[in-house]
Write a structure and sequence with these properties.
The chain starts with a strand and ends in an 8-residue tail after the last strand. It is globular. It folds into three domains: about 170 residues, AICAR transformylase, duplication domain (Cytidine Deaminase, domain 2, 3-Layer(aba) Sandwich), CATH 3.40.140; about 130 residues, AICAR transformylase, duplication domain (Cytidine Deaminase, domain 2, 3-Layer(aba) Sandwich); about 40 residues. By secondary structure, it is of the alpha/beta class. Helix 8 runs parallel beside helix 13. It contains 14 helices and 15 strands. Strand 13, helix 13 and strand 14 form a beta-alpha-beta unit.
Amino acid sequence: MKELELKYGCNPNQKPARVYRGDGGDLPITVLNGKPGYINLLDAFNGWQLVSELKAATNLPAATSFKHVSPAGAAVGKPLSDTLKKIYFVDDLGELSPLACAYARARGADRMSSFGDFVALSDVCDVSTAMILKREVSDGIIAPGYEPEALEILSAKKKGNYAVIQIDPGYKPAPIEHKEVFGITFEQGRNDIKIDGELLTNIVTKNRDLPEEAKHDLLISLITLKYTQSNSVCYVKDGQAIGIGAGQQSRVHCARLAGQKADNWLLRQSPKVMELQFVEGIGRADRDNAIDNYIGDTYMDVIGDNVWQKYFAVRPEVYTAEEKRAWLDKMTGVSLGSDAFFPFRDSIDRGAKSGVSYIVQPGGSVRDDLVIEACDEYNMVMVCNGVRLFHH
């Protein structure tokens, strides 16, 4: 197939629309079901690159949940604890495959943002993964292949309109890429830098204790940032992104946004949230919204006397700021990556509030010494690798 005609571009008024290769070659994809759109394909191709690199770096199956050309979550296939199974709403599915664990983690990191996602998988989609997707609101999926039963399950989604794409894992794009804006063609070499342990050797802090698990998480943060709209910051814990801040003009705003998402992920595991009792039959999306509002500072405004009965079987006690802070203060071992240098220490201070112990960033700011000093105050380990990962 040389080209794929699309219904429209980013918006319904943007017609005609199609995708094709600039060199006239065949597209590396086969659409097995549904009709992917312009933004779907942007998410699909970026997501596929992300999971391919995650698998190459970790030797584990990988998944990502993409929305609007940035990942809402990304993860590798590490086993799930009983707590994570519960907060990801997969505790009723029995034993999950490593690939299914990867997607459960990727989707579960920021479930509100993952609503209506486009999924990318590094490996052949199995039935275990398809069963998770069967009941989630999602627009489509890209993978190198599908088990027959998994394809049957996915093809039935959205009344048969779920987009299922198979990609040729051997496809290699040209080393030069092009992009057109306002009738002007931009040309650049592809960002094909290999992200591996060699980028984690320049430790600049007094604390130089960087365990293997932390290296693993720092690599996940860097690969995720490589495909996240800049500026971007990524918090990672136990093989999965737990907070991604994308597309902010100020780096500290990225750190705050990602940190708030990481806090929500951590707070969802607290006893007060785990013990919430929902009304019978409530959907997962409504539970996600209710939990997010409950954790947030506006709980009494959003879930007041006239509203809480819609979500909760028993009215929950207010989760006070002091209680939340006490829970978050127990958290440690979180890794933080940044796609460009930190110009001020404010992002370090924000990371400390979310249990950050390890940081990777390019370095190169005139205030690097102040940023390193901040890390030393918190006994953090920081790597300056000299590699910027802007993505636009």
